[in-house]
Fold this protein.
Amino acid sequence: MSESGIKSRKADHIALCETDDVAFRKKTNGLDQVELIHDALPELAVDDIDLSTEYCGKTLRAPLVIAAMTGGTEQAEAINRDLAAMAEIYGIGFGFGSQRPLLTDGITVGYQVRDVAPTALILGNIGVVQAREATTSALARMLDQCGADALVVHLNPAMEVIQPGGDLDFRGGLDTIERLVRELHVPVIVKETGCGLSRHVGERVRSIGVRHVDTSGAGGTSWVGVETLRAQGAQATLGERFWDWGIPTAGSVAQLDGLDLAICATGGVSNGLMAARAIALGARCAGIARPFLQARSQGGTEGLDAMVRQVLAEIRLAHLLAGARTPDELRQKPILLGPGLARWIPRGTPLYDRALR
C-alpha cells in the first residue's frame, strides 16, 4: 500500500472511531456478567488502596493502559502526544496503533511521544503479517525510534480479510512470534484486534515463551465493522455478516485463566468498574481505547484528563467496596458470574474453582 493510501486509511480509522458507528451491534464484552461481592466491612481507608501493578517490566501506578488506536498521520501525532502525556501524568500505560507506516515507509509522524512521556510504559505495535516479512533488526530499530518498552504483535485476520487491500495470507504467525520472543530486546505482547484470544491460542503462544497478552475481545470497537464501512460491494456484505464475530472480552480473559500469562483486558472496557471486573476475573490490567479518543475529541485535553481521573477513581472505589487493598487481592476474591460467561471458563482452572455458582 502506498504512503498516501496508508495515511488515508489511518485518517478513516480516526474519524470512524470518534463515533459510535463502529461498536459491536448485539454482542457485549461480557463484563456485565461479572459481579464483585460487596464487603460492608472492608477495614480499609480509601488511601490504603494501592493500585500499583507490574506489566512488561514497568510498575504502573494503576492497572490501566490507554490502549492502541492510531498513528501515521499529522492528526494522530497530536492525539498520541496528548494520550501519552496523560499516561505520564497518571503513571499508566500507553499503546500506539499499528506502526506499519514507520516500519515500511519510514513515516515517523504520530509516533514521537517520549519527550512528553519520558517514564511511561510505551507499547509499540505491528501486525503479525508485517512482522513476518520484516527482519528482527528492522523491528528493533522501529521500537528504538519511538522509545517503546515492548512490542505488541497484533493478530487481525478478520479485520484484514474485510479491509480493502488487506492481507489474505496468515501462515507463519507462530514462528514469527517465536523469533521475536527469542531475538528482540523487549517483551512481546500478543494481541487480538477486536475478536479475542482463545485458550488454544493462549496455550500456543505460552509454549513459545510469550508472557504477556492483550485480549482485545469482542464487545467494544468492531474493527471488522470499521473496515466494513470502508469497503464496497461483496466485501462490505461479507463484513456485515461478520461484524459481531469474536470472543467477548470477559470470555477471553476466562479462557486464558491458569496459563501464567499477564493479561491486559481490552475490548469494550469503557469505565473503571468494567476495568475492576476484568481485573477480578484475572487480568493484570485493563485497556481503554475509543472512549478516551472520544473524550479528547469532545472535550479536548481537559475532557480527556477528567475521564482518566474518573476511571481511576472508579477502579479505586471498586477495590474498596470489594475489600481488596491491591489488584492482587482483588484477583483472589470470590466473584459471581452470569451463565453466559461461565460457559467460557475451562474446568479445573483457578477461576473455575473461585467463581460462585
